[in-house]
UniProtKB/TrEMBL annotation:
<dbReference type="InterPro" id="IPR036179">
    <property type="entry name" value="Ig-like_dom_sf"/>
</dbReference>
<dbReference type="Pfam" id="PF07686">
    <property type="entry name" value="V-set"/>
</dbReference>
<feature type="domain" description="Ig-like">
    <location>
        <begin position="1"/>
        <end position="89"/>
    </location>
</feature>
<dbReference type="InterPro" id="IPR042757">
    <property type="entry name" value="ESAM"/>
</dbReference>
<dbReference type="InterPro" id="IPR013106">
    <property type="entry name" value="Ig_V-set"/>
</dbReference>
<dbReference type="InterPro" id="IPR013783">
    <property type="entry name" value="Ig-like_fold"/>
</dbReference>
<protein>
    <recommendedName>
        <fullName>Ig-like domain-containing protein</fullName>
    </recommendedName>
</protein>
<feature type="domain" description="Ig-like">
    <location>
        <begin position="92"/>
        <end position="160"/>
    </location>
</feature>
<dbReference type="InterPro" id="IPR007110">
    <property type="entry name" value="Ig-like_dom"/>
</dbReference>
Length: 160
């Protein structure tokens, strides 16, 4: 799943509850799995806990808990939010497979810094370069030669 940095993303997950089951007995845990595992948010016994400081204040469940819709939202996404998210639903006496979602936070390119090296003289060589300090994926630049603008010269006038 892709999102642009700074935008809101919804990571969808749900499970089929048995009719008449008590959803308040379930525990829902969303983890971010990177170099280390960090808890994003959890719900248990009527209480919601925002986990790691990286996500605090930016995450929540899409619907009021308890619910069989355990979808997560992340607001103001950051590049560091890119990675694997795992949702576990724990229900007494019921085994459920965790759900995994991959998130890729795209970063718009920064305004490029462009430069010219060499002397722009007839039959001379020059090198044109452009670089952006930010952008994910890395910005690619294409150069295109355009026709020179026509210059109009007026002959000197002898009268007004």
């Amino acid at each position: 799943m892709d999102v642009v940095k700074g935008k809101l993303v919804q990571l969808r997950a749900s499970y089929n509850a048995k009719p008449g089951s008590d959803l308040t007995t379930s525990t829902v845990i969303w983890n971010f799995v990177g170099d280390s595992t960090q808890q994003v948010i959890s719900y248990t016994k009527g209480s919601i806990n925002e986990g790691s400081a990286q996500f605090r204040g930016r995450v929540g469940f899409l619907v009021n808990m308890p619910s069989s819709d355990v979808s997560l939202y992340i607001n103001n996404t950051q590049e560091s939010d890119s990675g694997r998210y795992v949702c576990q639903v724990l229900i007494p006496d019921v085994f459920m497979e965790p759900v995994e979602v991959m998130l890729d936070v795209k970063v718009p390119p920064a305004v490029p810094t462009c430069s010219l090296s060499g002397k722009p003289v007839l039959k001379g060589n020059v090198t044109l370069m452009c670089m952006s300090s930010a952008g994910k994926p890395l910005p690619l630049y294409k150069w295109r030669r355009t026709s020179p603008t026509s210059e109009v010269f007026f002959a000197p006038m002898l009268s007004e």
